[in-house]
Design brief:
The complex is a heterodimer of chains A (343) and B (279). In chain A, the strands form two sheets. An eight-stranded mixed beta sheet of chain A has the order 3-2-5-6-7-8-1-9. Chain A is α/β, with parallel strands linked by helices. Chain A has one domain. Chain A is built from 13 helices and eleven strands. Chain B folds into two domains: 94 residues, Translation factors (Elongation Factor Tu (Ef-tu), domain 3, Beta Barrel); 125 residues, Rossmann fold (3-Layer(aba) Sandwich). Helices cover 23% and strands 30% of the residues of chain B. Chain B has eight helices and 15 strands. In chain B, strand 8, helix 5 and strand 9 form a beta-alpha-beta unit. The longest helix of chain B is centred in the last third of the chain and has 13 residues. Chain B is globular and about 50 Å long. Chain B starts with 7 loop residues before the first strand and ends in a 6-residue tail after the last helix. The chains are: A alpha/beta (343), B alpha/beta (279). The interface between A and B is large, with 54 and 45 residues.
Chain lengths: 343, 279
């Protein structure tokens, strides 16, 4: 039996142990928001949050990330030659990450490490040294539909340890081998606690009322889904603000820009958004996605048709509901997908 | 671990103004480290990100052939920020090359076939590479007849005329060069590329066409080829879209589920017919 039990008021031992190797971060309330913050002791943790406003993708894929550096001086012998900087900072542990956000990391592994010979080194370096300790959802948020998109409130994909909240104590299940060392000296969980956790999972699954149906999207040809008549009506209210792509835990499109200041120069990547006309604008002035409908459609096609096509069925959506919660014009991803699924 | 975003440092060896309006220049680039030249293992049809520290990157088709030695040739149209900066750079300047990226023309699959090359304007660059490669003694016998149809607006806008005349003289290629309108002293073809293709009427039997040009040229060439019996899987096109990463991650150059940078830039007409026209 691998499951361990730890009381919430006895968590400091585990946190100390983790803290020796990892910088610890967890969701904490900040006014009306829930944000990822550095934590140091059990008392810093919050047990009543639904999920963080921003997804944790920035830990592995920062909004601005330095890729290369160079000496901005053509006169110098090493000048103008781009070089890889030393990887920064110590490993991090994300404590109380929600299963949907860990699943998003597992999806992004398929994107950033699609070529095992030449992976995206910046993603891989941080992913390899980040420990994910997930907190299962007992009270899923109203916009959630994770059970429709290959995920669930107690899912373990992408996690190192799954933690299920039993009230005054946590049931810990190791998922990856590297997690086991941190919980090996904790008490074994009782049959009763394991059963309780399983009941909580059933209950949470039952609470998720949001559904998306994708059978026709998946079965249909790319052109048929692309040319669906519903896009016209669905896109009308979208203002192409890009809020959805900013909050989305799996949106990963980026731009690359160079910056200089005196003799210091660097190449950075920044989060980008397919909602912007600049995203696809050719230098000639031609724009293959020049219209709002084309950009609106691209985001959904990418997540629900193109990514599964490329990534052996993996969806570019984990059902966290952030895009629906944050959209300023109330576009609901569940509504969009269900409409497109109707032939 | 190989960092796919790290360009190889190169030195500009030579810069030549390539067209009368000076909108195109050809850059010869020399690898600073000889081991990088060996690592840069490419075939015609592939492209590279030309990388200028402090300015950015632009994806450009490789105009040289690997049979020509280690130096790389790129003919670049001045269009945006990076290409404008490049046009102001000089021999001796340091920059970077990241690649080779994308897929070459499918030489293994078209072995033994007649090759019809159709090029318009400065899209001829990777087809220059292709021609040099096909005509190399190591490769020439593996292919049938070679036909080269190429057009530009005016005589002064034609690229690579010197080497094209050499191909012509070698007797190994049928060459058709055209300009849009009559010009005094011009004794070759006159008319748009699609018209010349119809006139030449290349046989589709055991043949493939490699086509690279502006969208309007491709659009009007198609019906002419259809009429004389060409099928979609014989027509191979090279596409372009805005790119950044060049390795299928950053998300902008997709045509349907395919990234032009990673899955292309070479596609068959059959493949493109099944995809949205987002290019």
């Amino acid at each position: 039996m691998l499951e361990k039990i730890v009381f919430k008021d006895k968590l400091d031992g585990l946190l100390d142990k983790l803290g020796r190797e990892y910088g610890l971060f967890a969701p904490v309330k900040d006014g009306i928001h829930t944000v990822w913050t550095a934590v140091f002791k059990a008392g810093d943790l919050d047990w009543n949050f639904t999920n963080t406003d921003l997804s944790p993708k920035g830990f592995l894929f920062p909004q601005t990330e330095c890729m290369l550096v160079f000496e901005n001086d053509p006169g110098s012998t090493e000048g103008m030659i781009l070089k890889q900087p030393e990887p920064e900072d110590r490993p991090k542990a994300l404590f109380n990450i929600r299963p949907c956000d860990a699943k998003a990391f597992a999806v992004l592994d398929l994107v950033f490490e699609q070529d095992p010979e030449k992976p995206d080194v910046y993603w891989k370096e941080k992913r390899g040294k980040t420990l994910l300790l997930g907190l299962a959802c007992n009270n899923p948020c109203p916009a959630c539909f994770c059970t429709s998109v290959n995920c669930g409130p107690h899912h373990t994909d992408g996690l190192d340890i799954l933690m299920q909240d039993l009230g005054d104590r946590l049931l810990l299940t190791p998922v990856s081998p590297r997690a086991e060392g941190f919980i090996s000296d904790l008490d074994h969980a009782s049959e009763k606690d394991i059963k309780l956790a399983s009941e909580l999972e059933q209950k949470a699954v039952g609470m998720i009322k949001g559904r998306v149906n994708m059978e026709n999207i998946q079965a249909g040809s790319i052109i048929d889904v692309f040319e669906h008549s519903a896009w016209e009506r669905l896109h009308e209210s979208c203002i192409n603000c890009g809020t959805c792509t900013f909050y989305c835990p799996t949106c990963h499109c980026f731009d690359i820009q160079d910056e200089t200041s005196g003799v210091y120069g660097r190449r950075v990547r920044n989060w980008d958004t397919c909602m912007s006309p600049l995203f696809t604008l050719h230098a000639s002035g031609h724009n293959p996605r020049g219209g709002k409908l084309a950009r609106f459609r691209q985001r959904f096609m990418h997540k629900f048709k193109y990514m599964p096509f490329r990534l052996k069925g993996a969806l570019g959506c984990v059902g966290c509901g952030r895009c629906t919660q944050k959209c300023p014009v109330n576009i609901d991803v569940r509504h969009v997908v269900n409409k497109i699924n109707n032939n | 671990m190989i960092n796919p975003y790290l360009p190889y440092p190169v030195r500009i060896r030579d810069v030549r103004v390539a067209t009368e309006d000076k909108s195109l220049r050809t850059f010869e680039l020399e690898f600073i480290n000889s081991e990088d030249a060996r690592a840069f293992d490419y075939l015609p049809g592939q492209f590279a990100e030309l990388s200028i520290a402090g300015c950015g990157e632009a994806p450009i088709g490789i105009a040289s052939s690997p049979t020509e030695g280690d130096n790389l040739l790129f003919t670049v149209f001045r269009a945006g920020k990076v290409t404008s900066r490049l046009h102001n750079m000089n021999p001796g300047d340091i920059m970077g090359v990241r690649g080779p990226l994308g897929n070459p023309y499918p030489f293994d699959k078209i072995r033994g076939k007649n090759v019809v090359i159709i090029a318009g304007g400065y899209a001829v660059t990777t087809l220059r590479s292709t021609m040099i490669w096909l005509l190399h003694p190591d490769n020439r016998d593996n292919f049938g007849d070679i036909t080269f149809i190429y057009g530009a607006r005016t005589p002064g806008m034609l690229l690579y005329m010197q080497v094209i005349q050499e191909w012509e003289k070698s007797g190994q290629v049928e060459v058709y060069i055209t300009i849009d309108r009559e010009v005094p002293g011009w004794d070759r073809h006159v008319g748009f590329v699609p018209q010349i293709v119809e006139k030449v009427s290349p046989s589709p039997d055991n043949s493939v066409a490699l086509i690279c040009g502006p969208p309007v040229m491709i659009r009007f060439t198609q019906p002419g080829l259809d009429k004389i019996g060409w099928k979609g899987d014989q027509i191979i096109l090279s596409m372009e879209n805005r790119m950044k990463c060049g390795i299928g991650i950053c998300g902008r150059c997709n045509v349907g589920p395919y990234y032009v940078c990673k899955d292309g830039p070479v596609f068959t007409k059959v493949q493109l017919d099944m995809l949205p026209k987002e290019y």
